[in-house]
Amino acid sequence: MEKNKDAEKDIIEAARKVFITKGFSSATTRDIAKEANVNIAMVHYYYRSKENLFDIIFEEAFKTLISSILDATNSNIALFEKIELIIHNYINTLISNPYLPNFIVNEITQNPERIEKKFKDKDIYNKVFKRLSEDIENETIKGTIREINPISLFMNILSMCIFPFLAKPIFKWVFEFGESYYGELLEERKKIITEFVINAIKKC
Amino acid sequence: MEKNKDAEKDIIEAARKVFITKGFSSATTRDIAKEANVNIAMVHYYYRSKENLFDIIFEEAFKTLISSILDATNSNIALFEKIELIIHNYINTLISNPYLPNFIVNEITQNPERIEKKFKDKDIYNKVFKRLSEDIENETIKGTIREINPISLFMNILSMCIFPFLAKPIFKWVFEFGESYYGELLEERKKIITEFVINAIKKC
DNA sequence: GTCTATAGCGGGATAGAC
DNA sequence: GTCTATCCCGCTATAGAC
């Protein structure tokens, strides 16, 4: 009876692709309809407005990016292994979703209220961070690692994992890297960052 | 005779502000004209098109961001001091221009060709990096630092400097930091990153 | 549910008077 | 140089036929 049995689903998938690669303001409902092989009116029929559709995609993307850290920090292992796990999990998530960091960072910078409106449950992130924080303090007291502010360490680790994805076109250009070589480099960074961090904090 | 003696200059300044905070696609010539206290037609009279005006701002911004690294890497000092100098210079530049990283990263991601078209003199960046690269290799041979791929080290340093600016709204939200406290934190990071990097690479 | 047609707006750009 | 008026396009959104 219908050409397209699950237009609703196709639209979401198209929206994910278009919004995440182009961002809210550059993406158009026409793009999304075309990508989904659907009439423009259908987009509004199922999702009412561009804004509403965007919110669904944004929330989903944000959770993807956050939850891969949460799992790792929560696990019951020693600090160094935990650091290794965080880095591995996070880079794996980024390799599978390379456009997410740009998308999230841009949209939040353009519209910081979105974060506060949609994610009232910030406490979760805060509590999980406290878990990591305690691990760090315990090791400091034991004397196995140097004194370091947990927030600084956390920022350093995230920075080294995410930034090479954000700045990928720039690095590729400056160093004349091909796409596949850059992929290998990102893969190798799991090990490199882990070693770098452990050397930075380990007492010797 | 004229209300506004140097509209041309006012327009550039307005364009800088509007483009850098909103990005190309969200910024409008109407925004820029308003910000410059000038009629919309004047924007086209002096700069022909939105695209053309944007290119001027983009090139200027890119050079600002790059040149602060070049100066430091080129100087004739020992590796550890050079690393310290790079980090200090770079974070100072970012504190003075906090919107630049988002602007550059976004626009290049949306339109990677822009980089290649406008900046044919990529060799400069490449050569200066080789300078740093040699310094690192020399110290490795001397045995004062651990073996590390210069590109990895370079990426790590840049990541830790820039990312906290890119992700400022997210970090402020998660950790409930106020604007002024976040400013202090960024200032402190000069020292923190320097120590972190030196500990990470120094043999002991 | 699906399509066509169209309303209604905001955008970039220019013609032409002064 | 400066301003008004206007063109024309592409966008979001909806009304209404099927």
Mean pLDDT level of chain A:
93
Q: How much is the radius of gyration of chain A in Å? A: 20 Å
Report how far apart the termini of chain A are: 72 Å
Oligomer: homodimer
CATH class category label of the largest domain in chain A = Mainly Alpha
Listing every helix as H and every strand as E from the N terminus to the C terminus, the arrangement of chain A reads HHHHHHHHHHH
CATH topology of the largest domain in chain A: Tetracycline Repressor, domain 2
Overview of the molecule:
The structure is a homodimer of 204-residue chains. The first copy, chain A, is mostly helical and 204 residues long. Chain A has two domains: 1-48, Homeodomain-like (Arc Repressor Mutant, subunit A); 57-201, Orthogonal Bundle (Tetracycline Repressor, domain 2). Chain A contains eleven helices and no strands. The first copy, chain A, has helices at 7-22, 29-35, 40-47, 50-74, 79-96, 100-110, 113-118, 122-142, 150-166, 168-175, 179-201. In chain A, helix 1 (7-22) crosses helix 4, helix 5 (79-96) packs parallel to helix 9 (150-166) and helix 9 (150-166) runs antiparallel to helix 11 (179-201). Chain A is elongated. In chain A, 35% of the residues are buried. The interface between A and B is large, with 50 and 50 residues. The structure holds a DNA duplex (18 and 18 nucleotides).
